[in-house]
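task queued by scheduler; priority normal; single chain, no ligands, no partner chains; default sampling; output format set to structure tokens
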Amino acid sequence: MNCQEELVERLELNPKDPTIPLLIKDIEALAKVDLSTDVALLRGVWELRWSSSTQPWLKQARWLENLQILDPVQQKGLNVLRLTGPLGFLAGIAVEAELSVNGLNQVGVKFKKGGWLGPTFGNGWRPTLLTAINQTFPAWLDITALNDSMRICRGNAGTCFVLLRRKDMSVEDWIR
């Protein structure tokens, strides 16, 4: 089993495993990220599976779905928090962002709106109650490992995130 397979297994079985940070460092040491050629790999629906943050909304929890939807070609991003289970689709907390590619491995993030996100109806319409965000500081993600199923990144505050691609959802489900 390679480092990435081992990390995914631990994220799925025991996300509090103390060896996860060591596996992340090993994967990052071997990774070569070049968004000038690999930017298409960013596009997708990603689920946060591990974070070094102490903030509860930036931690993985079995009862919470923490999604990040990225479409760098359209320069759009969306973070969504919602409950897991059958009622999770009814509502979530969302933050819309404008994305930019800033070099070989960095994505700039400018948060634009945040608030309530309702369910999607049969015609694709989704009610929202979002208000403008006045972001006064630069934000970015350094993408330190990237492939078609996993992304490791470090935010401007130093937080490390590991996200896995959700193949059961599409960008079009969230971003139009």
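post-processing summary
- The mean pLDDT is 90.
- The two ends are 39 Å apart (CA to CA).
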